[in-house]
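ingest -> validate -> predict -> emit
validate: passed (alphabet ok, no gaps, 192 aa)
predict: started
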Amino acid sequence: FVRSTLNKASFAFPSGKNGSFANNKYFACLLPNGKLNLLNLNKGSIEVIDDVDSYSFLSSGDYLAITIKKDRSNQLLIKKTEGKMVETFYNVVAYSSSHGKNKMVLSTKRDTLSSVTLLCFEKKYKKTIVAMATACTFQNLTWQQNDNAIAFLKEASNTASAKNELLFYSLKTKKTYSFIEKGENTFPSNRN
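emit:
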């Protein structure tokens, strides 16, 4: 339950979980039936989004990242909290927000094509493809503590003919670096 300190209006969210405030303008919580309730604290209006698995505020609450599991397709929606849908990503394998919540990295896989995409929310929304390859999956997306780089694993689908790689993308140089053990087909060893 949320109560306004300005006009004493109250809003109830029975069994709501993962409640969070953003920028003193919004409150959001997830109900057990998969409905995300986004309350505009200034207007007192509630937007309801269905089939939500999880959510997080980004860029001081100006954006909202929403994961939807629908029809066996993992979707990641990026929307402005004020209402406008920015972009929808399909077949999302993994995603990770930066420590400062002003950047996000995500990996997708459709058929045999996998990619890693960097989203920036600092001045305006910007999308950059960091890596793209076939016959692999990009996983374990990890941000450097100062948010200046991302490390991730390129896991080969067929380790008999391809090698796993640890990749490092620098946001400053806009370059991707590969770390691979010479002569080792399963770096790191397969988890199977």
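The chain has a mean pLDDT of 88.
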